[in-house]
Design a protein that fits this description.
- The chain is of the alpha/beta class.
- The protein has two domains: 138 residues, TPP-binding domain (Rossmann fold), CATH 3.40.50; 82 residues, SIR2/SIRT2 'Small Domain'.
- Strand 2, helix 6 and strand 3 form a beta-alpha-beta unit.
- It is elongated.
Length: 229
């Protein structure tokens, strides 16, 4: 049976493709408050602003491509069972060829009913406008888990991490809960690697590779495959 590699990915891996992040200097939160664009209350108060914000994110996503880190993770599926649990709402892992991707915080390329969470629609990179409705007549909203909302995929993600033979953390400082708590579900004898160019180690017992994702992931994969020979 193939080893199961579980990857926890965050905004750092997408930033290397040119996507703006929320927390870095010059990131999205310097232009918009979280309370203005990423809460249920913001959508109730000013749905037009929220829709424009995510329409812009979608437009930007259409213009960028997966980078070598995404592509290297996809290539791993030739020899390993790979599951990517991502905090990112972009589709770069899928476009790189990864077949098992769990999105904790939703997906930019999908919309859903503002009244029924199970009415979800693939919209690609098209905008959502005021007046665009689901089949029941309710306004469409981004299929995004906003601050203050439950993360519906957490239980499934915890089970995936618990089944890992290798855990790779890349592009995330694991400072945002509940996603940060996922590392607690990995077995104690499972090797954990964090790829992070700077800052404190996000997992106390992890090996840390102090490189960007596009440099660190190929290095980690080379070591992994050499040990497997």
């Amino acid at each position: 049976m193939k080893d199961h590699i579980v990857v926890l990915s965050g905004s750092g891996i997408s930033a290397e493709s040119g996507l703006s992040t929320f927390r870095d200097s010059g990131g999205l939160w310097e232009k918009y408050s979280v309370y203005d664009v990423a809460t249920p209350e913001a959508f109730q108060r000013d749905p037009g602003l929220v829709l424009r914000f995510y329409n812009e994110r979608r437009r930007q996503l259409k213009e960028v491509e997966p980078n070598s880190a995404h592509l290297t993770l996809a290539e791993l599926e030739k020899d390993y069972l790979v599951t990517i649990v991502t905090q990112n709402v972009d589709d770069l892992h899928e476009r790189a060829g990864s077949g098992n991707v769990v999105h904790l915080h939703g997906e930019l390329t999908r919309a859903r009913s503002s009244k029924r969470d199970d009415l979800i629609y693939d919209i690609g990179y098209e905008p959502i406008s005021p007046g665009d409705t689901c089949e029941l007549g309710s306004q469409l909203r981004p299929h995004i888990v906003w601050f203050g909302e439950e993360v519906p995929m957490m239980e499934a993600a915890a089970a995936i991490v618990g089944s890992a033979d290798h855990l790779l953390v890349v592009g995330t400082s694991l400072q945002v809960y509940p996603a940060a708590g996922l590392v607690d579900f990995v077995d104690v004898d499972v090797p954990v690697t964090v790829i992070d160019p700077g800052g404190p180690a996000s997992v106390s017992r992890a090996r840390v590779i102090r490189k960007r994702a596009t440099d660190g992931i190929p290095e980690w994969v080379r070591e992994l495959t050499s040990r497997a020979r």
